[in-house]
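Archive transcription. Copying these from loose printouts into the bound notebook so they stop getting lost. Printout 1 of 2:
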Amino acid sequence: KLLDCGEIVGIVQYFQHDLFQSIPKTLYFQKTIVAHEHYGRHSAFLSLPHDRYTPEEGQIHLKHILDLFSMLYGTWNHVQSIYGKDNKMGEFLNQALTPIVDYVCNQNRSISHLFSTVEYTALKNGNQRVLLESKHCLDYLKSKYGLKDGLIGYDNKVLYSTWDSDTTFYLQLMFQLRKQLPV
């Protein structure tokens, strides 16, 4: 099934042989342009309506999507090692790529939407008690010491932040980049 705009048709194809290596960078299917990028044992496909996008724009958008994904979540091999074991790769990719595709293709330039599935949200969804305690701690510091805004983090992940979503995004991004720097 192809959507009107910006659907990732496939992102990780893990095979013993490079089956997708010979596929051209741009395919045409009915009224859709499909941009394709192949590297190593991975291939990515992005479908876009041909009446709104050129093949060059499709390639550029696919590159931006892949770059944003790598920046936020790491390499494809890293993601495969985490989610591939439990067969949760499809679920994770759908959750992670939807805001990125919206951000790149659909001009939904909301940083909070882009950032909605980055690492710290899994803890938010799974442990409301930690979030509530973090919120109470920051509220106490605000009232007692006049703290304007702050965040509570652990292991280079933002657990709770009172800053706006843009600031929180850039702080989380700095934590992510810091983890990737050589010691």
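Printout 2 of 2:
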Amino acid sequence: MSRLDDKAIDFVINNVLRKGIKTYKSQEDVDIDGDTCTPDITAYRLNEIVGIIEVETEEEVNKGSLKQWKEYLKIADKLGVPLRIYIPDTKYDDAVSVIRKSNCDMSMKRRLKSCLATYSQKDFDKYIGKKGSRVKINKKIADGFVDEIVDELLNHESD
């Protein structure tokens, strides 16, 4: 399993969650098992409940975002909060297939599958539009899905 630098996790906790910033796009590369990546995390603080939500486009699901998803899971675990990975409903089967074919252990596969949440293309088009930038997508997801996100976080049960 990929290991996200503890410094990066602490950075997210201190610079994002404690300051109440809703969206955080890291400008710093983080070394994960010899690979570098840039964490892209959307965090919602609802009283003491924090969720980390990744908006997946179809292209990103097709490419496979497993490594990123495991990073987000590690951050959520450290924070003791649920993780929700938002993907288009039409790509749910693809995402499950990516997880199933991965070399993760069974408990990790179950956990990742339990994190998946979907949105419909209709909602995507309504709230985001087809040509929205990543920041715009995060903002509109935050605006448009806020009630759903609150429900998801309050009712989340891990397997």
